[in-house]
Amino acid sequence: MSLSFAIASETDASAIAVLRNAASAALKLQYGEGNWSSVATERSVVLSNFMRPKFQKTLMARDGSAMVGTLCLQTKKPWAIDVKYFTSVEKALYLIGMAVHPDWQRKGVGRAIMKEAKRIAREWPSQAIRLDAWDAKAGAGEFYAKCGFREVGRVVYKTAPLVYYEMVL
């Protein structure tokens, strides 16, 4: 496996949707129906990842021509994040929409794309990366902790149980 990283553009939205749907389907198969089993469309990827290019960057990982991982860093706080749980910093980025294709999971792709995300965050510049993860077996909290994120809170937003994580850079 030889990974390469690039900032995605709108032309990559369809491939990102395919990747997210594959990851979602695998989680649904393993853990059943839940918040993690939503379906992405090219339009939903464009709306969530490419509508504010000055304030968000979507990172993709490729193995050759195959897109194997993606995530988005953005300056805008997601709806489910309550900043009172996080370390006070001047500039924070929020990580959303991380997915690794099931065929490449548990092979280091997630850690590699996370390492690249940290590099991008430092150059942005930002003092922290914040995120939320489902507080469920299908949630990726354990993965984020292994990547150096620290749990800072647990909340229920509407009916969704979440765990907040941050990495101060």
Explain what you see.
There is one protein chain. The chain has 169 residues and is an alpha+beta fold. It has a single domain, classed as Aminopeptidase, CATH 3.40.630.30. It has helices spanning 13-31, 42-49, 109-123, 141-146, and strands at residues 3-7, 56-63, 66-74, 92-100, 128-134, 150-157, 160-168. It is globular. The two termini are 28 Å apart. The model has no long low-confidence stretch (mean pLDDT 94).
Structural key phrases:
33% strand, globular, 7 strands, 169 residues, alpha+beta, Aminopeptidase, single chain
Strand content: 25-35%
CATH class: Alpha Beta
Number of helices, where a helix is a run of at least 4 consecutive DSSP H or I residues: 4
CATH architecture: 3-Layer(aba) Sandwich
Derived structural class = alpha+beta
User: Helical proportion?
Assistant: 25-40%
CATH fold type: Aminopeptidase
Let me know the number of strands: 7
What's the number of structural domains? Answer: 1
Detail the poorly predicted runs: none
The arrangement of helices and strands along the chain is: EHHEEEHEHEE
Biggest sheet strand line-up: 1-2-3-4-5-7-6
The residue-averaged pLDDT reads: 94
The CATH homologous superfamily is termed Gcn5-related N-acetyltransferase (GNAT)
Radius of gyration: 15 Å
